[in-house]
């Protein structure tokens, strides 16, 4: 399998190269040169497989040429052996046609663990036998940071620098990052929002002089390997509700468009997905883009769903590339226009291509709270605010004979205050999180400027040999 950039001019890489690179050299994102497909018979055969077995089957085409089937299976066994539920991503029934797909049973209580536990192992595997030192730079609106840090803390040959917006992540999210004592972990709070943090990360990758000094890589969903790993749970869940003989639908709480793009990949691979509900909070750039074609950035509004407080969704570029005929030159021009003007219109081909599968929904705080109360009172399920956004959106798009799965992306205890306000129930942290609130925090706070952040990274990173 070969990987190409959405902007058309970066070198074509194999899976190992794309994983270690993260962002493409031309500023684009790596995608497979073509989409592999699974036949109905192959999908049906997943029914009796464990999560690790399913993962190895679904991901095998994407890693071909970089990992053998046995190597991939061993990595999957290790990555998913750390999850607190044997099913890894279990389904919980809400009513006769709605389910929660629980993605928070990993070590940091969020869906990011599903991909990042594997990504940490992939980094280690591809660095083994080399003298290279990897400098991971990422931005987080909450859960990516803690999951990435857990995945690489203490690993040889890797340093991780994680930026988060000061005061705009929950206390549990922050502490899960800042209380990790491994010397290769560097937390940076910036005086700005997530979009600014994400732009600073991309700027470091795109600065030829800076990037030339260090071997940079990414753990954000700009890294293809992360999205690849997330494709698996769409197959795993759908097969348990009757696929491929039965179409299924998913509602996904969405900020950076990575999780829902993984659902699109599953559909391209042959999974019978009837609908992907793109659920946003009031920071609704994606709902507007999919509904009206208006992809224009506005001021970020802080909410009780901080992981969705985003106005520039990096992974949307991958969808626009695929729906626009995979024309890297045209997309590069389109994205340069967006980066300059903070606004653009989707082309007719992009809008028409999205219309058959995606539907965008904006959910306000009242809708979120009502969904949390509904889940608690009618189904006995306490859900976090992000999951509630997706559940509210899902309930607007139910269809007969099509099971709807809402992706439950975080443990409710990560957002205890918001959950308690809506439901009167204070969720407890699982015992496996331990003494989180007693640990010492380590973090620096910097101005949200390229000069300040790049200088800090350069002062603590290991240069190329």
From TrEMBL:
Alphabetically ordered keywords of this record: Amino-acid biosynthesis, Lyase, Pyridoxal phosphate, Threonine biosynthesis
Sequence ranges assigned to domain Threonine synthase N-terminal in this UniProt record: 2-80
SUPFAM superfamilies, alphabetized: Tryptophan synthase beta subunit-like PLP-dependent enzymes
Swiss-Prot/TrEMBL cofactor(s): pyridoxal 5'-phosphate
Gene Ontology MF terms: threonine synthase activity
Annotated InterPro entries: Ser/Thr_deHydtase_PyrdxlP-BS (IPR000634), Thr_synth_N (IPR029144), Thr_synth_N_sf (IPR037158), Thr_synthase-like (IPR004450), Threonine_Synthase (IPR051166), TrpB-like_PALP (IPR001926), TrpB-like_PALP_sf (IPR036052)
Pfam families assigned: PALP, THR4_C, Thr_synth_N
Catalytic activity: O-phospho-L-homoserine + H2O = L-threonine + phosphate
Limits of the Tryptophan synthase beta chain-like PALP domain: 88-336
Pathway membership: Amino-acid biosynthesis; L-threonine biosynthesis; L-threonine from L-aspartate: step 5/5
Domain of life: Bacteria
CDD domains assigned: Thr-synth_2 (cd01560)
EC number: 4.2.3.1
Family: Belongs to the threonine synthase family.
Name of the protein this chain belongs to: Threonine synthase
Annotated source species: Sphingomonas citri
């Amino acid at each position: 399998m070969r990987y190409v950039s959405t902007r058309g001019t970066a070198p074509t890489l194999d899976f190992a190269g794309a994983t270690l690179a993260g962002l493409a050299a031309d500023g684009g994102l790596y995608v497979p040169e073509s989409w592999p497909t699974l036949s109905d018979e192959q999908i049906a055969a997943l029914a009796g497989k464990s999560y690790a077995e399913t993962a190895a089957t679904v991901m095998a085409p994407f890693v071909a040429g970089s990992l053998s089937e046995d190597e991939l299976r061993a990595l999957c066994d290790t990555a998913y052996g750390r999850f607190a539920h044997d099913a890894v991503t279990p389904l919980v029934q809400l009513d006769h046609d709605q389910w929660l797909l629980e993605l928070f049973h990993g070590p940091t209580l969020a869906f990011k663990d599903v991909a990042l536990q594997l990504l940490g192992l992939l980094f280690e595997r591809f660095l083994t036998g080399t003298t290279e030192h990897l400098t991971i730079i990422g931005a987080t609106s909450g859960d990516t940071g803690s999951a990435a840090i857990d995945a690489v803390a203490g690993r040889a040959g890797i340093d991780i620098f994680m930026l988060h917006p000061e005061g705009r992540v929950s206390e549990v999210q922050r502490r899960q990052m800042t209380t990790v004592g491994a010397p290769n972990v560097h937390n940076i709070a910036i005086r700005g929002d997530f979009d600014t943090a994400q732009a600073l990360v991309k700027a470091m990758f795109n600065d030829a002089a800076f990037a030339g000094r260090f071997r940079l890589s990414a753990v954000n969903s700009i890294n293809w390997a992360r999205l690849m790993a997330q494709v698996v749970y769409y197959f795993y869940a759908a097969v348990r509700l009757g696929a491929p003989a039965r179409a299924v639908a998913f509602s996904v709480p969405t900020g950076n468009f990575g999780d829902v793009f993984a659902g699109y990949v599953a559909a391209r691979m042959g999974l019978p997905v009837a609908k992907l509900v793109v659920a946003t909070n009031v920071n609704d750039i994606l709902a507007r883009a999919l509904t009206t074609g208006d992809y224009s950035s506005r001021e970020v509004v802080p909410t009780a769903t901080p992981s969705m407080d985003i106005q520039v969704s990096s992974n949307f570029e991958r969808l626009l590339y695929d729906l626009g005929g995979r024309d890297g030159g045209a997309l590069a021009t389109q994205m340069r226009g967006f980066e300059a003007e903070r606004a653009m219109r989707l082309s007719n081909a992009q809008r028409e291509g999205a219309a058959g599968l995606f539907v965008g929904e904006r959910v306000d705080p009242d809708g979120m709270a009502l969904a949390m109360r509904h889940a608690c009172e009618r189904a006995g399920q306490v859900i976090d605010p992000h999951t509630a956004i997706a559940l509210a959106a899902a309930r607007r798009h139910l269809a007969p004979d099509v099971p709807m799965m809402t992706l439950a992306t975080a443990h409710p205890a990560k957002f205890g205050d918001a959950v308690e306000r809506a439901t009167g129930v204070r969720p407890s942290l699982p015992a496996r999180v331990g003494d989180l609130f007693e640990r010492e925090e380590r973090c620096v706070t910097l101005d949200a400027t390229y000069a300040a952040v790049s200088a800090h990274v350069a002062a603590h990173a290991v240069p190329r040999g």
